[in-house]
Amino acid sequence: MTPARKALRPTMAAAVSVTVLAGTAFGLAPSVQAAAPAPTAATAASSDSASSSGVSLRFVDIPGDGGVKLAANVVAPADADASRRLPLVVLPTSWSLPQVEYLAQAKKLAEAGYVVLTYNSRGFWQSGGRIETAGPPDIADASKVIDWALANTPADPDHIGMAGLSYGAGISLLAAGADPRIRAVVAMSGWADLVGSIYSGRTQHAQAAGLLAGAGELTGRPSDELRQILDDFFSSDLAKEPDLIAWGKKRSPAAQLDRINANGAAIMLGNSWGDSIFPPNSYADFFEKLTGPKRLELRPGDHATAELTGLLGLPNTTWSHARQWLDRYLKGERNGIDTQAPVQLMSRTARGDDYEGYPSWSAVPSEQRRVPLAGTEKITANHDSGANAGTVLLGGALDQFLKVPPLASIPLLPRSRAAVWQTGTCAREQRVRGTVKLHTTVTSDRSDGTAVAYLYDVGPLGVGKLITNAPVTFHDRTPGTPFKVDLELFSTAYDVPAGHRLALVVDTVDPLYIEHNPDGAHLTFSSPAADPSYLTVPVRD
């Protein structure tokens, strides 16, 4: 990570702004934030209550790893007692959210006969300790919470599950590899490869990391290790890259795959195509390698937007499927979710709530369409062409709710700043399904640089709707010497109407990412006869 051309380390003002944006997206009004009482011993003793639906709620303190206090709440059937054991579901909170986050869903689970324990991840809000970013203390905390539940509630030791959203999803998956008592997991809007999510293509995802950094500072107490990792990340110090990768690997479920498979938990994964914090590619790869009962759901939206209405207690398909998954593997109910196709996808252009079922991720596309990228294109770096992938959290949400992805006028893109290739008009609808891949040859007149690839659906008026994108960064290349680039764009499902075109655009600047192009740099994209450039587009009949 050589010094980036621009100083994109987020200022506190920028971090606060993006955190306020995140709070709005998650529905965290100040009144909601204040709703969580400090879970002192006195509170735990006095906060038992039963609603008209027959559900009890109590706020408690739980000793986590090293004795760190974890602020938690227990939601259970009001008549639960030691006379019968009930399945247990543990819900770690999302990054920066308080322990009341899951109360609406916890109530639904308790009404269905579960003991539900939700807790504030260490370092946030009323919990003690510092933010370890799903590090070993967080995983040890999950086991301590299970220990406490078995000792203090009528939880059944043979029927334990974990579920969570975002940060809670990552902790749940990692805990499934560390604690064999966990029999079922639902991981929504999480990650399998942490570094691959925020550092894909060796490119820092600046807005995503800035959001996490700012939210962590405002609502928690980051550890010294996390602050150092973020400093190194934003400073673009290439010498620190091995430390970043090692830090992220320790926090990546993909690195614990063997242990997760050995423990055999039934795992449901859910993510959104436009997740600007944890893109879906690593979930899909991870899913293919799981050997136990498994399910993968991918749908339109941005980070956690598909699950948001469920947190508010409103009808929500993702949370309904999550409860069915837990019912099947913790309660043994034959509800049919395990007989459905294990891969369930919803196209970004679909109307309604219809999923397509596939037997595996590799079976999703029925054909790989190769689009040749002929000729030579030379562009000047450091200038935004007008093509971009939107804004963290908002871009995918607009696509989900309004069917308005990031747009660009393809004819008006300055060819000095953007390389553009277009297909002819499509004679029939093109159902893009899976991971688009770019193979090309690049020549730079500098040793370091960044390029961002975008695939657009271009209508008759030349307006392009973004289908997918991805960045790639190179270091220590010999100036003037061509080199190959193979880039996987973020996985997607999108229907291109008949009469439209596909356009590949490559430029060097995007607000989502840190760029590494020196002033005055030029990038040339060529297609040598011995190794032609092409785009592979996965399509479904």
TrEMBL record:
| Coiled coil start-end | none
Query: Which intervals hold domain Xaa-Pro dipeptidyl-peptidase C-terminal?
Result: 323-535
Keywords from UniProt, A to Z, are: Hydrolase, Signal
List the Pfam families: Peptidase_S15, PepX_C
- Supply one GO molecular-function term: dipeptidyl-peptidase activity
Q: Where is the signal peptide?
A: 1-22
Identify the domain of life: Bacteria
Supply the InterPro entries for this chain.
AB_hydrolase_fold, FrsA_esterase, Galactose-bd-like_sf, Xaa-Pro-like_dom, Xaa-Pro_dipept_C
Its family? Belongs to the AB hydrolase superfamily.
Name the PANTHER family on file.
DIENELACTONE HYDROLASE DOMAIN-CONTAINING PROTEIN-RELATED, POLYKETIDE TRANSFERASE AF380
- Name this protein carries in UniProt: Xaa-Pro dipeptidyl-peptidase C-terminal domain-containing protein
Q: Which organism is it from?
A: Streptomyces antimycoticus
